[in-house]
Amino acid sequence: MSALNETKPLLKQLDRLEARLKEIPAEPGVYFMRASNGDILYIGKSKKLRSRVRSYFRPAQNLSARIAMMVRQVTEIEFIVTDSEAEALALEANLIKKHQPHYNVLLKDDKKYPYVCITWSEDYPRIFITRKRRATKQRDRYYGPYVDTRLLRDTLHIIKGVFPLRQRRKPLFKDRPCLNYDMGKCPGVCQSLITPEEYKKIVQKVAMVFQGRGDELQSSLTAQMERAVERLDFEKAAQCRDQLKALYNLNADQKVSLPDDTISRDAIALSADDKHCCIQLFQIRAGKLVGRLGFFADAKSGTSGAILQRVLEEHYVTVEAVEIPTEILVQHELPEGEILTEWLSEKKGRKVSLINPQRQIKAELIEMVERNANYELERTQRFSDRNTQALQDLATILDLPELPKRIEGYDISHIQGSNAVASQVVFVDGVPAKQHYRHYKIKNPEIKIGHSDDFASMVEVISRRFRKYKIPLNPSFKSKDQIPPISPLKGGHNEQDFPDLLMIDGGKGQLSAVVKVLQEMHLLDTVKVVSLAKKREEIFLPGESQPLDTDSEQPGVQLLRRVRDESHRFAVSFHRQQRLKSSRRSRLAEISGLGFNRQKQLLAHFHSIDYIREASIEKLTEAPGIGRGLAQEIYKYFHPN
Questions:
Q1: Which domains does the chain have, with CATH numbers?
Q2: DSSP letter string over 347-383?
Q3: Mean pLDDT of the chain, nearest integer
Q4: How confident is the model at residue 111 (pLDDT cuts 50, 70, 90)?
Q5: If 0-12 CB within 10 Å is exposed, 13-18 middle and 19+ buried, where does residue 125 land?
Q6: What's the mean pLDDT in 145-163?
Q7: What pLDDT does 2 receive?
Q8: What is this structure's pTM?
Q9: Do residues 330 and 316 touch, judged by C-beta distance below 8 A?
Q10: By C-alpha distance, which of 6, 5, 48, 40 is closest to 24?
Q11: Fewest C-beta in 10 Å: which of 51, 237, 331, 346?
């Protein structure tokens, strides 16, 4: 078969499609849908692979618009056969986590809700709150996402007050612990005054709180306290007593009593409109509500039952077996509930029941969860309406044919030309998309200490940003749709990262410089560009000597101000980082024989110039790459007499 046929969609090669479908066995397993460039579009599971994959290509099949679009791009189908449906579910979850296919993305990671992370990959694990769930280290554990951010912070504050935990990411001092050790808040991790094994036992107790196992932890601490009293170890007993008291106060403040305190269960429900879907998952342990997790999904990504099933699969694949309850209440029947039940039971090591309650106490619990999901949906709708109103107003102000889906903002930051940098921030649908932010270091040799040029800096940044779109031979493209695709974005789809609107922080001078470089690249007719002056919040358009007649408080102008303020914040923070690095290395650069890489190694070893200054020659030789001769040069530089 020719290579050309292999890059054509299977829907346009019915004979090849039919032959491929016949090769797929009627056994449980996982299937892959691939695009012409080899990217995985979708990963799915089934107890009968052949019938499931064939269902995508039946003319009468009622597919969602999103999945129908995916099917039109499929050029190859692959599969992995498993021994059982539960094994297929586990394999599918792992493969989705690894490859992150675009059409498998159901839950939106909008960083609205925070997680608690415990870095088990480190010898001395850290515990912190984050809104970015990274899967780079498999041993690290994330708990959440938690709906009540304030309650989560209060919980972590109480825990760090009664359990001796690592307080800093990096040591404050090189050769001694900080004040936290003297206060009993830290066991001296920085100086290894506690072994990693003993420290992890402390962290395991803390993890039980976020696993909803507070009662189990209280029982364990009570037993430890009693044993300490028998040994006359009253200091240890007092420590256990304080921890028990803090846990009791934590439980009293955070838990809501519910009927039937004999079974641990999770209850999940959703509320949706034509665009958004908000899901709430209540964690109930021994009749107490110990956690409320929140998720978001695209309402068009599937039926209510399918969305709930995917949420449960993605949630439970990341938790430990002890965190899985014996009973899960669901608002709607799940399309593959039997497979999910079998998989969860196998993972937990005991039977897990999946129930769709219709009456009495369990049905009332589901109704309560649904009401909370509805409140979150209303909040999401109000936020979305405000953004839509701002985008519509901005489109009216700038006379745009469509709403500006992707807005990019640019700013320059420096101090009299030193450490000049620039920022690029991106707003998608009126919301910051921080995964697309970018920093620039200004490379123009004319821009240096004592000589700044914001116009030249902006020209350099815009040139670097759009050089891949430069069209020197064919300047006839008049719209974004006519630009040839350059490279797919993360996620595997062919959407371009080309902006609908450029916002330049500055006045007419900065705007004129950007307009000139876009003209040279034949892109001025393709992208809309404006500038926003700080003093009076005035909007300038290319070729116009006067600003637009706008009110600084109207929604569209406020949106531009948010983009401008975010680009300014991002540029200033990066400039401060560069200035700090420069100041740290400036003195070391004066030492003969100490190159850039050795400066980095020296600073990584001692953490500050002050520690390097105080170090003896013997201590200096302990740093990587520092021999005795170079150590003597460093010591002589800081101690000339």
A1: 3-104 (3.40.1440.10), 115-257 (no CATH), 265-273+296-314+324-380 (no CATH), 399-582 (3.30.420.340), 587-638 (1.10.150.20)
A2: HHTS--EEE---SHHHHHHHHHHHHHHHHHHHHHHHH
A3: 82
A4: low
A5: buried
A6: 79
A7: 46
A8: 0.62
A9: no
A10: 48
A11: 51
